[in-house]
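Bit of a strange request maybe. I'm writing a small parser for structure token strings and I need a real example to test against, not something I typed by hand. Could someone generate the tokens for this chain?
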Amino acid sequence: MVLKLHGGSLSTCTARVAVILHEKQIPYELIEVDWPKAEHKSAAWKKNQPFGQTPYIDDDGFILFESRAIAKYIATKYASSGTPLLPSSNDPQSMALVDQGASIENNNFNPSAEGLTVVLFFKKLRAAEAEPKFVEKWETTLQGKMEGFESLLSKQKYIGGNELTYADFFFLPYGEAIIKLGYNHLTNEIEYPHVARWWKEISSRESWQAVKDGVKGLPAQN
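Reply from user aminoacidic:
Good idea to test on real output. This should exercise your parser:
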């Protein structure tokens, strides 16, 4: 059975899962949520995702939600497929660094990047005005984190150590979103050269190019 990804083709969190599936070369079918009918808030949807959010996967009957948990599951279950996204030395310290990298994204990047995307992009889609106090809050918070990212990436090549792992890909959806909004925190080679080097590498990967403008699924190869 082909893995089913239930989510939205333009959903940031769905893209976070899809890019990992592409890296691992795992065929999957996108089951597009019916946004106008608020399908993700329906009783049927909440049987699989009790919080009424996207995405979730159905991997031959195994249901899992939360995009970061799904990404780690895929990287682990399909470790021998596609790009290795776990450290080659699968010891507790190496794995702890990957978990640290994932936590860094979730706590020190995502809140600000997602916040800016919500107030400056998604609210405009609903014809709502961006509130300046929230824009200022997220801009200030994100700027305050950049020194930490630069320091970390000056000492190691990737966010979870010196090997590419699934944690690096967690930054892509909202990193891409804030760049489109005009923020250069991830591309500023003068102020943050190590961040810019890292971002250029991960954002130019073929897997991200395949999903960044819309998740479409990945058919099985004959």
